[in-house]
Amino acid sequence: LRAAAAAQGGGGKAGGGGAGVAAAQIPAAVSPAWLVELSLHLAFGHEDASDLVSAQKAVDAASALLDDMLKQGPLADLKDPRWHIRELVWNARAHFARKQPDKVRQEINAASGGTVTGTVLFVCNGGIPKEKCEDELSAAWSAIDDGLDLRDAVKASAAAPPPVPAPGKGQGSAGPRKGPGPQGLVELALAARAACSARCFALAQAMLARLD
Questions:
Q1: Residues 6+ apart with CB under 8 A from 193
Q2: Region Disordered: which residues (predicted)?
């Protein structure tokens, strides 16, 4: 697949295929993004066929292709399609590593520059025990937005607490806090979605109130 991504053409015998007949060159540039998605489809197909070894090889191939794509330059523009490809690959890696998550989770956290993405992916893919999901998501959230103790908010939810200020709008002794930025808000929204996936609804409500 990686060789096909770099290929710009192919050839075959023209006419009757006799000796001396020139090969026809057919330009066929292949998109690495398409190859990544194909590799992931193959991985889940192998999983359906109970061939987990081949499934893991397909995921590894997709991950290698992603690494090549990311070498093109930094992910600065949120409209860059490589964001989507990266999410697909990381989600697949989390799915196939859900029974032994430590190594892959550490790699995803290192590549993403934080703990939210890895936590979210493994919560949604069953790699974190249900009884630990609330604590894990709360800790990951605090790494981006430390202005709210989600555990306290969950405990106080039954008492109808006052509205929670949005990230970056809270007032403290040092004045307004700096917001988490566009990508930070995306990660916080994903954490709220993961809380719903784990059926931690009180936690999700506190997160959504914070994002509102």
A1: 120, 124
A2: 157-181
Q: What is the pLDDT of residues 1-44, one digit of tens each?
A: 556 555 544 444 444 455 555 565 666 677 889 999 999 999 99
Same domain as 207, residue 119: yes
- Domain holding 86, by residue range, is 31-96
Residues 35 and 85 in one domain: yes
Whether residues 185 and 142 share a domain: the answer is yes
Question: 111 is written with which tokens?
Answer: 């590549």
What does the alpha-carbon distance between residue 122 and residue 99 come to, in Å, rounded to a whole number?
10
Per-residue HEC secondary structure of 38-95 comes to HHHHHHHHHHHCCCHHHHHHHHHHHHHHHHHHHCCCCCCCCCCCHHHHHHHHHHHHHH
Rg of the chain's alpha carbons, rounded to an integer?
23
Q: What is the mean pLDDT of the chain?
A: 82
Residue 197 is assigned to a structural domain of this protein: yes
Cα separation, 121 vs 194, whole angstroms: 8
The span from the CA of 109 to the CA of 195, in Å, is 18
